[in-house]
Write a structure and sequence with these properties.
This protein has 193 residues and is α/β, with parallel strands linked by helices. It has one domain: P-loop containing nucleotide triphosphate hydrolases (Rossmann fold, 3-Layer(aba) Sandwich). The protein has eight helices and five strands, in the order E-H-E-H-H-H-E-H-E-H-H-E-H. The protein has a five-stranded parallel β-sheet with strand order 2-3-1-4-5. Helix 2 packs across helix 3 and helix 6 crosses helix 7. The longest helix has 23 residues. The radius of gyration is 16 Å and the shape is globular. The protein starts with a strand and ends with a helix.
């Protein structure tokens, strides 16, 4: 199994690159943001509770997203590996993920961290907000709140995996193809290692 965390702030290109990486490497894509948006679209109780927090740019409680990932792992026993996108987002989520994977005799192979300047993140998200319908993209103050939440709570995830020497920074600016090639290069190194 090859398990990869695609890490980075909101708008760094995790979703864009995930689509390509799962197709190249046959991994199962687990995006907690996508799962939450599907709960919202289906107007479930969980979705409605999450929406209030997401619209403010705040994180959903750890136990909610950890439960979602636990189910996804259990429901995909045949997967060749997982690409985690937008998860883990707190130290507690990282520890929980490590435990869930180790119960299956697995672990995280690498954390690829996309590096993008704050001005570029804001530009990308405001631009997407013009057409995407994502309520957390339309307003610059919510975008800034998401980035602040990332610095406050999510950067500790990289610190956690740095302790195990698993984090590799990748420049997240340039064309989508250039960034994809750089990510693949890092994956290939780890796959043969
Ligand atoms: P989530 O859905 O995870 O969103 P996010 O992290 O804010 O990330 P985005 O989807 O906005 O950006 P991305 O990095 O995927 O970039 P993308 O490829 O889309 O989370 C949303 C919310 O859900 C959170 O705020 C939280 O409330 C909740 N949540 C989710 N997971 C959670 C968890 N684990 N714990 C607690 N709460 C959780 O690209 C962005 C834009 O840039 C696109 O328009 C794209 O076309 C463009 N773009 C991409 N690459 C390039 C490039 N190279 N050059 C120019 N433009 C580019």
């Amino acid at each position: 199994m090859f398990n990869l965390i695609l890490f980075g702030p909101p708008g760094s290109g995790k979703g864009t690159q995930s689509e390509r990486l799962i197709s190249r490497y046959g991994l199962k894509h687990l995006s907690t943001g996508d799962i939450l948006r599907s709960e919202i679209a289906n107007q479930t109780k969980l979705g409605m509770e999450a929406k209030t927090l997401m619209d403010r740019g705040e994180l959903v409680p750890d136990e909610v997203v950890i439960g979602m990932i636990r189910s996804a792992l259990d429901n995909n026993p045949e997967a060749k590996g997982f690409l985690f996108d937008g998860f883990p987002r707190t130290k507690a989520q990282s520890v929980a993920l490590d435990t869930l994977l180790s119960e299956k005799g697995e672990g995280i192979n690498v954390v690829l961290a996309l590096e993008v300047t704050e001005e570029e993140l804001i530009k990308r998200l405001l631009n997407r907000g013009l057409t995407s319908g994502r309520t957390d993209d339309v307003n610059e103050s919510v975008i800034r709140a998401r980035i602040a939440e990332y610095h406050k709570k999510t950067s500790s995830v990289a610190d956690h995996y740095r302790e195990f020497d698993k984090v590799v920074g990748v420049k997240g600016e340039g064309t989508v193809d250039e960034i994809f090639d750089a990510l693949c290069e890092e994956i290939e190194k780890r796959k043969v290692a």
